[in-house]
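name: query_chain
kind: protein
chains: 1
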Amino acid sequence: MKKSHPLNPLKWFALFLYFSITAAHAGENEIRQSLQNKFPSIGKIEHIVKTSYADLYEVVIDDQLLYTDAQGQYLFDGSVIDVKSRRNITEDRRRQLFAIDFDKLPLDLALKKVKGNGKRKLAVFTDPNCGYCKRLERELLKITDVTLYLFLYPVLQGSDEIVRNVYCSKDPVKAWDGLMMGGIAPPHATCNSQIDKVMALAKKHHVQGTPNLIFGDGMQVPGYMPAEELEKRLNGADKK
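structure:
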């Protein structure tokens, strides 16, 4: 009788790794198929990854981060919060998944403001009728040594005309500051503004509202942020 030889431990590990990866991909493929069968108009499923919590799978569909179960029978739309640390896991993941190469942004579409040495960089998608955008502008007054790129993104009702008037004014930066800080509406003006290009840019980078901040390291942070937090985030991005 031929004596069998036990497999080398490295070979056992290699086999385990192979079957683990195969099983994982099989699960992801099954989830994708299940979602597409149940939701034929679901759109492009760009990403399916198993998370380390609650047996959930992370799914990116178009510009949304969603969750599903292991069978792809349910879709969950909302934030996952780590109760112990109170950390918004979904928001952290969204920032990572939709990070942007800052140097590839079409900065010529933005209003540029250099403060101090201008070393740090911050891009902002902003709307003139957005209350939190106006609050953010006042916080930005407290920040120096930064170059600001303001992408005027008219998503609220009545903002289109205001943004066009700003873009088409003789001094767009001055017109914008007068509007946001003093409530001075820019006079009516016409030109080939950049609005359509900014709208397309926002869609490309999953910008869903205003204000939306993009730091020099490419991380997106939607929403208002006070000056103290802005300073911390700008310094952290500059180190990277």
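note: DSSP finds seven helices and eleven strands in the chain.
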